[in-house]
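QA checklist item 7 of 12: single-chain prediction sanity check.
[x] sequence parsed
[x] length recorded as 196
[x] structure emitted
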Amino acid sequence: MARRTKADAQATRSGLLDAAEQLFEARGVSRTSLNDIAVAAGATRGAIYWHFKDKSELVHAMCERATLPMEAMFNEITAVAGDDPLGSIRKLTVHALSQVAVSKQQQTVFDIMFHKCEKTGEMAPMFEREQESRCECHSKVEILLRDAVKLGQLPPDTDTALVMQILHSFMVGVMHEWLLDPGAYDLGRHAEAFVD
């Protein structure tokens, strides 16, 4: 009985997140209420508040669900970078762009976050959590960049903090622009060339 209840709760949570993705994509985050999401998911407002404290927490959970495969790969690659940190960074960036190119869920969520979600008001707490995650990710990549300098893969005078910012800007920029017009080119096919 407890397993079924847990499974039912997980199915309800997934249904709410699915409905949120669809409505946020169609209307934007600020124009979608928690009640709209509950109705679209065939659930009650109480179900929303059982799973999520507020809209900010729901959006955060939506983002986490879409990016977990990227995070798992990121953690796996950074843990075993070894004697080829630059190769590991290349692998990470190519993988991230390739994932976005093939994952409809990631495309939807990134499109929502880039183009349909304001960073003020009720969403401010979610963006603060995202900033903390971003800083943690940047720190790990900067360690790889420093290792690349130590191993002679990058020049000794490389400003690793600046390179990290450039790399981040490149990745966000490619994803942001591609999501505006996915038909412009095949991101999956060109990911390696872009990174190289």
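[x] summary fact logged: The radius of gyration is 19 Å.
[ ] second reviewer sign-off
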